[in-house]
Amino acid sequence: MSYSVIVAEDEPLLLENLIQKIESSGTDFHVIGSAPTGIQAYDLVEENNPDLLITDIRMPVMDGLELIGKVRNSHPGLNCIIVSGYSDFEYAKTALHYQVKEYLLKPVDSEELNAVLVRIQSEFAVEQQKLESIFSVSLSQKSPEQITEILKDYIVHNFNKDVNLNLIAMNLNYSPSYLTRMFCQKYDQTPSKFLISLRIQKAKQLLDQRYELNIRQIGEAVGYPEQGYFSRIFKKATGLSPLEYRDRKET
After folding, report:
1. What is the Cα–Cα distance from 112 to 118, expressed in whole angstroms?
2. Same structural domain for residues 141 and 106?
3. What are phi and psi of 93, to 5 degrees?
4. Is the pTM of this model over 0.90?
5. For residue 1, pLDDT beyond 90
6. In this structure, are residues 212 and 171 in contact, taking their beta carbons and an 8 Å threshold?
7. How far apart are CA 28 and CA 121, in angstroms?
8. Most buried of the four, 4, 76, 79, 197, by CB within 10 Å?
9. For the segment 117-171, what is each residue's pLDDT rounded down to a tens digit?
10. What CATH number has the domain bearing residue 246?
11. Residues 184 and 201 in one domain
């Protein structure tokens, strides 16, 4: 089994060194693309739907945080690692608001990187075991319409958890892009967009009906454990922050 990685770093020597460390880590992660700017990295993510994005925090055109923020709109479950210099430490802490898995200081230590990759790979293994009982190669014998219905039902019942389309596709022996295309043909939106829309819909219901829950608790209930990130996603979708949405009835 192999997990795909996109690396974004604007310094060629550091980029080459980071790729080498990933490839020699002894894990199942392999670099399938690299880019010197956030814009180019974003295009690679959209084209390849990787399992992991590793990005420098300071890059021309679009920095690492902007990249992750944009990627989150179309790939809400993508695992991300931030790489930063010591001078970026305070800046890098805001990465927590983007549900980043880890941030590593330059120069990246091989053992520290390996530990992070092993941890993420272990999380993938646990998640895959759970998915195998629902999505399997035998399921791929069903019609595309049946498969997309099962996928939609899975998202509806697991919207508050991480939904890893790559692992689901892997269990079906499909590519993520093919599974996404089938879903779009039936529901006119990607699985990721459907997941975000469902989470926002559920958040609205909780904001309207469960006044005993604070904003952080509502975010956690719909799959966004970091309050700042939840608020940004909610405002992007509705034009209001969660608190403004809740208070709108009182004005």
Report:
1. 10
2. no
3. -65, -25
4. no
5. no
6. no
7. 8
8. 79
9. 999 999 999 988 888 888 887 787 888 899 999 999 999 999 998 889 999 998 8
10. 1.10.10.60
11. no
Q: How many domains does the chain fold into?
A: 3
Could you tell me if 96 and 118 lie in one domain? yes
| d(C-alpha 56, C-alpha 67), whole Å | 10
Residue whose tokens read 């599974």 = 179
**Same-domain status, 184 and 198:** no
CA distance linking residue 13 with residue 16, whole number of Å? 5
Nearest to 34 by CA among 44, 46, 24, 21: 44
Residue 220 CA to residue 225 CA, distance in Å, equals 4
**Does pLDDT of 241 surpass 90?**
yes
Please, which residues have CB within 8 angstroms of residue 14's CB and are 6 or more apart in sequence? 56, 106, 107
Burial class of 61 by CB neighbour count within 10 A (0 to 12, 13 to 18, 19+): middle
Tell me, yes or no, whether 51 and 156 share the same domain: no
In a domain, 129, yes or no: no
Give me the amino acid identity at 249: K
Tokens describing residue 80: 């991300």
For 232, the domain range is 193-250
Query: Position 30: which residue type?
Result: H
pLDDT tens-digit readout, 8-55: 999 999 999 999 999 999 999 999 999 999 999 999 999 998 999 999
d(CA 190, CA 180): 6
